[in-house]
Specification:
heterodimer; A: alpha/beta; five-stranded mixed sheet; 5 helices; 7 strands; B: alpha+beta; eight-stranded mixed sheet; six-stranded mixed sheet; 34 strands; 25% strand
Chain lengths: 174, 921
Amino acid sequence: MSDQTKVTFQLNNTKISETAYLSMMLADYLHEIKGLTATRVCCGIGVCRACTVAVKRAGEKSYEATRACITPVSSLDGASIKTTESLADGTKLHPLQDSFLKNFAFQCGYSTSGFLMGAYVILDKLQKNPISASGIDEAILAGLGDHICRCTGYQQYYAAVKEVILTTPGLVRD
Amino acid sequence: MNLMDAYKQNRRTFIGISSGLASATLMVKYLAQGDAEAKEQTDYDKKNQILDPGPAWSAGPGKARHRYDGLAKVSGRKIYGRDFHAADMQGWPTDEVRVLVLRAHAADRIFLGVDVAKLEKDLKVFKVVTHQDFVRDHLKIPFYFGRIMMAVPGGRPDYLGQPVALAFIRNKDYLALLAIEPKFFDLSSYVQLGSTASLGQPTSYGMTRLTRYRESPTKDLFSVAQDGMSSPPWEAPDPKGSTNARCVYYGNLIEQEMQNQGWHIFSESYVTQSVDPCFMESESGIAWFEKKKNTLHLTLGTQSPYEDADACATIFADKTSSFRVQTVKLNACYPGGGFGGRDHSDFPLYLAIAAVYGDGKPIRIVYNRFEQFQAGIKRHPARIQEKIAVDNDGMIQALKTDIQLDGGGQNNFSFAVQAVAAQNATAAYYIPRVDIQSQALSSIAVTAGSMRGFGTLQAMFALESLVDQAAYKLKLDPIELRLINLLNNFQNTTMGGKPTYVIQSEKVLRAAQTSKFWVERELSKKTKSDSKNMYGVGFALALKSYGTNLDACLAAVEIAADGRVLVKSNGIDMGNGVATTLSLAVADLFGRNADRILMGVTEDFESLRLTSSFESSQAAEDSKAKNPRWVPYLSMSQAASAGAYQMRHAVRQAATLVLRHGVWPAACNLANIGNRTFDIKRIKWKQGEIWIDSERRIGWQALVENLYKQKMVSGAMVHAYYRSQWAEASFRIGNAIETLPIDALALRLAHHSSYTLLDRITVQMPPFKNNLFGVDMFTPYGLLVGVAVNKETGVVRVDAAEGYIDVGQMGQLEIVEGQAQGALAMGIGQTLFENLPLTKGGPGEGGWNFGRYRVPLMGDIPINRFKLHVIEPIPNDPPKGMSEVVECAVAPAIANAIAHATGKRFRELPISPDKVKGALG
């Protein structure tokens, strides 16, 4: 069996066709091949979630929070991948980025991309399935509860994400 | 180094030694800034290049809308050491070589060598560098970093995780390996170990004895400040003998009085564990030895850029060295966390060594998390014997403490950590009789060094737990007992000196004591306990020094012709917000925040042409100080919560000089007022305009235009040195002589690109004896914690918390809150579940990662149930460092809350579920 495979995917809205090694992980691909380092690598074993990116797999309608350090590129044929580099619309920051800034959500910032993309997936899910206001805490904990940050104590991350959920139309049912 | 030498060492000694060896030029630049060596980034977001903070960061003078470095971080830009390849660097060759560090996974067996053939076959390694190369090429080991840089074949490795070899892989081979074998998790099979070998006796990395016996609250019969340091060998007790003999005499007297005075004696043993700082970006970097120019280039995240560059230069300083390194250029990146763990790490040294063996190619080392656990600096585990005597009035009359720290395989900062543990061992209290002994010993464990709390966390866990226990036993309100014993500003510290600034511990305690959280603690216990959980509320008061009392800060403030204000500092923002803090520090002087700040700068400060050396007496310092270029200590690490006060001081001194000799005369010109005598009280800034004497208003741009037209001072560069007081020097500026709390100065006139160095006319360095005062500036922090203890599982959950802090004049509330929140989380991990075995099964053997080492997650934290209360500062009190103290209170507060809930006191960290279950039966 060959150790290479052909894959085609969208990376930050750009179509890419690659002959990918079966074992190369998305995080290594982004860093070493594409020079995109916003997806931070910390534990390398899929525990800390610093490398979280948003992936919409072929045939799926929603993005899933995906750990780039344990996701082979070869498994992403037909997928749409979104990393922090593409969150902003030109110079206009994504509301999550704005809120992270405004709430002083991060300190060293190394876990920030993972939180941003994890939160992006939360918003994506809520757009399709709005929740009641009483369910926001649970949604944040479900989406970001496994992310490790060593600086912040999570409180300002939590506040920033909650603020975006509450202020984005259509995410919370009356 | 023998025990006596270790005892006499302090931070300056080490720097002095290494500086003396290195004759290379050290050039340190902060990467992620436009004028560093980094090429302009070409991927996303060309605007707001790297650390332009963006147009929205400032919220008006003295306030930030977001962190200065926020936009770069939230946009995912390349700012960390791990982000950079050689191809990103201007002027570097692009063909990069990957270097792996092979390590000893056992330290009780003979190291035979590395399996080079297997490395070549499996990993395409084309070169291996070992101890033999190090010796053959006459490389030297900087003092901090032990006896050998790599284990010696035929001998026993000094410690677990000690490097044994560097393995070089061409980048194309490395990328191919990534595709086949994505992670180099376990390199131990390439390290050949033989028979078991006996371990040597531990050696001392440093020891301290602080004995003080009071005559009155403001006067001591014996203290370090008054009588000098005491050190072994101990002599027979004699009240009129040598310092040692008197120290022993008063130590014995304290022990006798504790036994004979009828005081209540509380004596317990405490154990704290080894933990990892777990900064999220593992140590990573690139380096290139440019042989043609004898220049070593390094790019990495560090807390100690100058000292790292200095240490790297030291490696090649021997005249017979095969490598001639004349210049070290260090590009300091924004670190992805630090917490002390990047202060004097040995990582930069291996980066430097690998670079010179790179055959002209840049090399890259990136630790994975397994390697970071195996190699990275840890917190010192401690065994503490604590005894206090409390009289019937609740006064703590005496304290005896013995602190034993395990420093692991290299001294690193053990000599200082044990000393700071001793100096802070009395916490927030004035205790008339203290006899504190502290020592750090070597072991084969992974090296322990600087970590947030720096020995104080361990000492404070012991004392704050025991004080709480005493209060319950004596049926006193625990906060009331603390109030009775507070250190005030007129009393002597443990060392016998006086605190420099007012310590508002009383306000902290009163606020906590009157809070609903505390007042209703018994009600909470009753109402929140149920069939599953026992609920309790605990309190602890921490007092932690900020700064090292040997603080050397460099700063420059410049006004550009277009009006932008630029600040440069030798500080590093590792997430603690110091870039933002220092940008705001000029606001009241210029009516605006700095537009740009460069951190980790050293190269620019070469304009001051400073030299430093460690001197061991007042006479020697006086002699050296005649040289206007000499300062006792050149540049400190980003450490000891020194950003808020010490580094800010240097920035403000520079800014004040630009105000006085640039902005003020420009304002006088424009306002047509003849009197040019500078008086800061005549100045007010409102909406970007300067008001003089409450009437004449001039806008900033007009001021700057006039400043440039008149060719006045547009930039000032200073060096400031603190040792219980700031060094003061006088300078001739224009026709006047000014005395300032700095010891070196250069000024830049408008339209000039370079600085003019001003020789100091006189200098008053802080007296040498101030070394004996130890730390002298303190921040108090009180923490209330509510916990729920699961009776069945033994799991402790922190349910709510309230903190009370005096930070003096506050910079930015959100940054202060963030530090306290982060410290609560880190403290919860330290208290309840983080734990690293020191030897067998520990991280030095490899195999540790976040799958095995649990750190607090969002669900472990009382989100929305932690409130920080900032105490009203005393007017004109400066800002106080606080990032360390906020962690020191967490463990005892939780332990005391568990005691309130369960009636059981836990004296060994972590307070894990099995221990709780065991105690509850």
